[in-house]
Amino acid sequence: MATTEIRITGFGGQGVILCGHIIGKAAAIYNDQHATLTQSFGPEARGSACSAQVVVSTERVLYPYVTSPHILLAMSNDGYNTHKRHMAEGSILVCEKDLVKPDKRGKEGEVFAVPATRIAEELGRKIVLNIVMLGFFAAVTDLMPMEALRQSVESSVPTGTEELNLKAFDRGYEYGVALKEKTEIQV
């Protein structure tokens, strides 16, 4: 049984919950897997701590809560600092390069960082940084086919924003592929 626990963390307003929704939907609807989503956020909502937990598996998910994530997707340093101690040994950290400063002594085995906010700003809408992160996540984790996540983005974002969000996803994906291939990256 292949089960992967994922925690997405950041501030309310960054699209943390939407990221979790898109990953779970991609797994369950577009990749013939099973997935659960749980979420938590402060009462202040925008600007407060926020996290989404996704469990993706080839088998039915019997326990929907993330206890020791294999992947931590961090869009804020506070979120990273709050959740890093729960990471599984040798886990993957996917983070926003300009906002998250990983420890050298953390449990993560691999760290992949993307300047998602800068890329989103280049696209004209800072709000799509979460979708840039998803594209990057798709490229560096190989958890599921890129096309499954891309379809999930297209069917989950507000009507009229699909083109911008798919462009954001593609830019994040391209950055991740280039990073993994160790080619020069322009931002």
Topology:
Layout: E1 3-11, H1 16-30, E2 34-41, E3 49-57, E4 71-74, H2 77-83, E5 92-96, E6 110-114, H3 116-122, H4 129-141, H5 146-156, H6 162-180
Parallel strand pairs: 1-4, 4-5, 5-6
Antiparallel strand pairs: 1-3, 2-3
Helix pairs in contact: 1-5, 3-4, 4-5, 4-6, 5-6
State the main characteristics.
single chain; 187 residues; alpha/beta; Pyruvate-ferredoxin Oxidoreductase, domain 3; 6 helices; 21% strand
Structural notes for this entry:
The protein is an alpha/beta fold and 187 residues long. It has a single domain, classed as Pyruvate-ferredoxin Oxidoreductase, domain 3 (3-Layer(aba) Sandwich), CATH 3.40.920.10. Helices cover 39% and strands 21% of the residues. The protein has 6 helices and 6 strands, in the order βαβββαββαααα. It has a 6-stranded mixed sheet with strand order 2-3-1-4-5-6, with helices on both faces. β2 and β3 form a beta hairpin. The radius of gyration is 15 Å and the shape is globular. The N and C termini lie far apart (39 Å). The relative contact order is 0.16. The model has no long low-confidence stretch (mean pLDDT 90).
Largest sheet: 6 strands, mixed
Spatial gap, N to C terminus: 39 Å
The topology string of helices and strands comes to: EHEEEHEEHHHH
Q: What coarse outline follows from CA principal-axis ratios?
A: globular
- What is the number of beta strands? 6
Instruction: Please write the CATH class name.
Output: Alpha Beta
CATH architecture annotation name? 3-Layer(aba) Sandwich
The parts where pLDDT drops under 50 for at least 5 residues are: none
Number of domains: 1
**Average pLDDT, all residues:** 90
Q: Figure out the total of helices.
A: 6
CATH superfamily: Pyruvate-ferredoxin oxidoreductase, PFOR, domain III
Percent of residues in beta strands: 15-25%
